[in-house]
């Protein structure tokens, strides 16, 4: 099964990584989250600046991507 995991606390948040570690044992996992914590910005959107996404190498067997956007983007 392919699983996409995201949050609003950033790609290095411990709970996100623990969940991804556990689910990646028998599944293909992808993590996409803000590059920095964005708590409290659930309805904010990015309008006038480009969004980018960058793969982050954390030595895991699943792929992790950081984005400059908000959780709603």
Please outline what is shown here.
The chain has 73 residues and is of the alpha/beta class. The protein has one helix at residues 14-23; strands at residues 2-5, 28-34, 53-56, 63-67. It has one domain.
Would you give an account of this structure?
This protein has one domain (2-40, 48-67). The model has no long low-confidence stretch (mean pLDDT 91). It has a four-stranded mixed β-sheet, covered by helices on one side. Helices cover 14% and strands 27% of the residues. It is an alpha/beta fold.
Please give the alpha-carbon distance between the first and last residues. Answer: 25 Å
Gyration radius, rounded: 12 Å
Report the uncertain regions: none
**Count of helices?**
1
How many domains, as an integer? 1
- Structural class designation: alpha/beta
